[in-house]
Amino acid sequence: MIFNGLLSLSSWGYVGAALLLTHITIASVTIFLHRHQAHRALTLHPAVSHFFRFWLWLTTATVTKEWVAIHRKHHAKCETPEDPHSPQTRGIAAVLFGGLGLYRAECRNAETIERYGKGTPDDAIENALYTRWRNSGIAVMLLIDILLFGWVGIIIWSVQMLWIPFWAAGVINGVGHYWGYRNFETGDASRNIVPFGLLVGGEELHNNHHAYRQSARLSNKWYEIDLGWIYIRLLEIVGLASVKRSAPTTEFLPAKTAIDSETVAAVIRNRFHVLKLYGAHVIRPVLNVELRGGYARKQIRRFRKWLTREDLTLSIRQRKSLEAALSESSKLEIVLDFKRRLKALMQPAVQDTDRLARLQEWCAKAETTGIEALREFATQLRGYSMRAT
Fold first, then answer.
1. CA pair distance 290, 300, nearest whole angstrom
2. Which DSSP string corresponds to 175-207?
3. Cα-Cα-Cα-Cα dihedral of 184, 368, 264, 347, to 10°?
4. 3-class SS string, 321-334
5. Do 205 and 239 fall within a single domain?
6. I want to staple 99 with a disulfide (CB 3.0 to 4.6 A). Which of 160, 170, 202, 311 is the partner?
7. Domain tally for the chain?
8. Would you state the pLDDT for residue 5?
9. Residue 353, pLDDT score
10. Are residues 130 and 269 both part of a single domain?
11. Which residues constitute the domain of residue 280?
12. Are residues 292 and 198 in the same domain?
């Protein structure tokens, strides 16, 4: 006689059970491993924190220190040969279908674990159980699934074992750096896969995360949904979590006309937002005017997306064609040059005192170019401030 388990469910009931169990794992990864442990964007009540650790031991055999170390290294070495899982250097197929193998290979790199894994749990249960007997948890989970669901539990367990390797190690690490839309001009190839972060708990909003990696909230636009953030807010309401960091909120103060250290701090901290505004409010309006008629204008039209985005690359031949077309448009050359200068003063190597003087000079010169869109942007930038919360 076939054992049917303690729970007798319909076919859809078993599907629902599998989705629920895998979703708890997704929530554990995005809330505990990613936002809490790797980036310290929030604090969790010890009971909640330990539940997530225990659940991940049961369903993924993940050691917190290893996961955190590999993720932090990904940010530190993003899109370089040292990046543990960049599809830009390893190929999309290697990451999408072999993400688990790449993760395990990096786990064997002791230098990575020690250098980037600091601050993770180092208590008795972590060392004696979760690390030492890392694979025992998934065996326990198999027995639980069989006990609850009978022979169908073996299928549910298999789904659980494949869920994170495919969706997290494969899709997020692979597709999230290969295909999708971008809100911010980050220096890497990160993408938002879709605006609805439901299936993988908000991790689909990967470009937003790379722009503000220490933010507990991954959504940025009003139409973007970060399910992990919703769970965090619910935990916060009942006193089981506390948000420490989120993406900075800014505003323009019309009455503020002098650039000071607060202006510089707001611009630097929210530099991706500033560059996005520059593309929308300076480059695009100038581009729309310059595209009217003429052979050079037709050439410029071919590179319209590249002029307002940084995630697109040009071949040597394409770049020469663009330079030739831009030589016919002094206004476009000017606004692109001012964008390069703005980005240059945002570089980490620039001292804060130099930034203040350079930003003041940038705004002063921008206002005298005779380009209305650039003048208006410079005037607004003088009042760019962090919003009080």
1. 9
2. GGGTSSB-SS--SS---B--SEETTTTTTTBHH
3. 60
4. HHHHHHCCCHHHHH
5. yes
6. 170
7. 2
8. 86
9. 80
10. no
11. 251-386
12. no
